């Protein structure tokens, strides 16, 4: 018996696809059956984002677990970090969050955790699907699971947790843009003395009318930047649709570089920090001066968390706006927790008579390309060709995640990372240089090759 399920939805980090062509109620029911075979008996935590298709997908998953005898912690609409927090705190056998994070509104997906709160990758889940070619085995007795919330306010313990982390050295004025996702339900409850909050686009809406679910999309920051300047705020924060990513603007409305955020947040955590291979010169210079260790990882929250566990790190970050923090036996990425810690850091600057913009103006300037995609017929051959051209002059070559080559010292040097897409004939290029002209010329060289 073959399964009518689209294998392309099983990604390196999670499960994700276009609804209903690629992911739908039938597909997630099959996935839930496979997960039920893997999870031990007990409670399952279920959450969902605000997408238009999330409720029906959620119900399909809920019915499978309930039919298999699992008790359901029915969290309902929430942020992904809140889901992680509850799955850990409620000592569940596992959990499923229905979300496609920052993907366009036509998409949906699943993020899955085990009983330790560890993320289970889509590729791992795919290995379990063949188990479901046989009839599903009911739990002993075949009794239906039940709802176990007993009217619990799931939001309160999470908001209390966040509030306990806010330590202001000076009162702060902050503008939050919730992107019509689920972060607004958290931020509007976050009331702390000394924190003046202005919240925009806080109403969950699966059509994402303000600027879409992705803060990195062109023009997505404009409303936030305008509000920060208008209200003379100390900081601006924008979240993606499920609240696991955050990006920041300073008091002048300028985007704060992710490597600067990484460094500032790391001040709250002893020991090494983990960042993906796209970490740039600025982060390396800041960490080097402070004598803090920065460890490189593969790209993606699954790999960052795995590296943090292996290296016993208490903090990690990615240039996609994900920042990672310890939680029980595992780690979770949370845009709101990142915002809380950055608010604390900026309040310290304010207590010392400085603004965030002052600190940023004192940093060295490097030039970064952003991610550029190249369609190629043979990814391995194309990468080998690029490596062959530069191998004789590269000072460092890493194949931890695709190909990363570094040339010269940070001042006056340049580097690039070339990573293959998991699902398409694409190579993804990121490049950085001290000199803007070097960036332009090296970009042109690689573009010609690819």
* Number of distinct beta strands: 21
Percent of residues in β-strands: 15-25%
Rounded mean pLDDT score: 92
- Derived structural class: alpha/beta
Q: Poorly predicted ranges (pLDDT <50, ≥5 residues)?
A: 131-141
Oligomer: single chain
Taking the alpha carbons of the first and last residues, their distance comes to: 42 Å
Q: How many alpha or pi helices?
A: 14
Gross geometry: globular
Radius of gyration: 22 Å
Residues in helices, as a percent range: 25-40%
Largest sheet: 6 strands, mixed
Question: What secondary-structure arrangement, pairings included, does this model have?
Answer:
Layout: E1 15-18, H1 25-38, E2 43-48, H2 54-67, E3 71-77, H3 80-89, E4 94-98, E5 107-114, E6 119-120, H4 122-128, H5 155-165, E7 172-177, H6 183-187, E8 195-200, H7 222-231, E9 235-239, E10 246-249, H8 258-266, E11 273-276, H9 281-289, E12 294-297, H10 301-311, E13 315-317, E14 323-327, E15 330-333, H11 335-351, H12 356-361, E16 367-368, E17 372-375, H13 379-390, E18 396-398, E19 403-407, E20 414-420, E21 426-433, H14 436-449
Parallel strand pairs: 2-3, 2-4, 7-8, 7-9, 11-12, 11-13
Antiparallel strand pairs: 1-5, 4-5, 5-6, 9-10, 13-14, 14-15, 16-21, 17-21, 18-19, 19-20, 20-21
Notes on the structure:
With 450 residues, this protein is α/β, with parallel strands linked by helices. It has helices at 25-38, 54-67, 80-89, 122-128, 155-165, 183-187, 222-231, 258-266, 281-289, 301-311, 335-351, 356-361, 379-390, 436-449; strands spanning 15-18, 43-48, 71-77, 94-98, 107-114, 119-120, 172-177, 195-200, 235-239, 246-249, 273-276, 294-297, 315-317, 323-327, 330-333, 367-368, 372-375, 396-398, 403-407, 414-420, 426-433. It has 14 helices and 21 strands. A hairpin with a 6-residue loop joins strand 19 and strand 20 (414-420). The longest helix is centred in the C-terminal third of the chain and has 17 residues, at 335-351.
């Amino acid at each position: 018996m073959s399964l009518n399920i689209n294998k392309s939805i099983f990604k390196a980090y999670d499960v994700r696809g276009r609804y209903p062509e690629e992911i739908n109620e039938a597909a997630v029911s099959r996935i839930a059956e496979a997960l039920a075979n893997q999870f031990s008996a007990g409670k399952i935590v279920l959450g969902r984002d605000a997408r238009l298709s999330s409720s029906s997908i959620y119900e399909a998953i809920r019915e499978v677990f309930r039919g298999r005898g699992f008790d359901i912690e029915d969290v309902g609409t929430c942020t992904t970090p809140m889901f992680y927090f509850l799955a850990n705190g409620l000592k569940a056998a596992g959990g499923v969050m229905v979300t496609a994070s920052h993907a366009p509104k036509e998409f949906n997906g699943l993020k899955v955790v085990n009983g330790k709160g560890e993320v289970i990758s889509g590729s791992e889940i795919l290995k379990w699907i063949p188990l479901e070619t046989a009839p599903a085995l009911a739990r002993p007795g075949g009794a239906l699971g039940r709802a176990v919330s007993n009217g619990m306010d799931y939001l309160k313990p999470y908001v209390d947790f966040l509030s306990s982390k806010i330590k202001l050295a000076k009162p702060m004025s902050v503008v939050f843009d919730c992107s019509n996702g689920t972060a607004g339900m958290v931020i509007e409850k976050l009331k702390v003395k000394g924190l003046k909050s202005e919240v925009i686009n806080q109403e969950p809406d699966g059509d994402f009318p303000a600027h879409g679910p992705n803060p990195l999309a062109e023009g997505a920051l404009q409303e936030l930047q305008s509000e920060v300047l208008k209200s003379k705020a100390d900081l601006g924060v924008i979240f993606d649709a499920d609240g696991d990513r955050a990006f920041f603007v300073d008091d002048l409305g300028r985007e704060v570089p992710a490597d600067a955020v990484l460094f500032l947040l790391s001040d709250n955590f002893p020991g090494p920090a983990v960042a993906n291979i796209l970490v740039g010169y600025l982060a390396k210079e800041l960490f080097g001066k402070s004598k803090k260790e920065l460890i490189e990882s593969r790209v993606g929250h699954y790999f960052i968390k795995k590296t943090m566990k292996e290296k016993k790190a208490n903090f990690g970050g990615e240039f996609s706006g994900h920042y990672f923090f310890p939680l029980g036996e595992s780690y979770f990425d949370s845009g709101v927790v990142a915002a809380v810690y950055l608010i604390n850091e900026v309040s310290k600057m304010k207590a010392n008579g400085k603004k965030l913009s002052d600190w940023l103006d004192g940093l060295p300037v490097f030039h970064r390309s952003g991610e550029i995609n190249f369609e190629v017929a043979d990814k391995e051959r194309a990468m080998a060709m690029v490596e062959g051209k530069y191998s004789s002059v590269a000072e460092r070559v890493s194949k931890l995640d695709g190909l990363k080559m570094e040339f010269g010292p940070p001042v006056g040097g340049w580097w690039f990372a070339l990573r293959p897409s998991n699902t398409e004939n694409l190579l993804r290029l990121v490049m950085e240089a001290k000199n803007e002209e070097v960036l332009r010329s090296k970009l042109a060289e690689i573009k010609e090759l690819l």
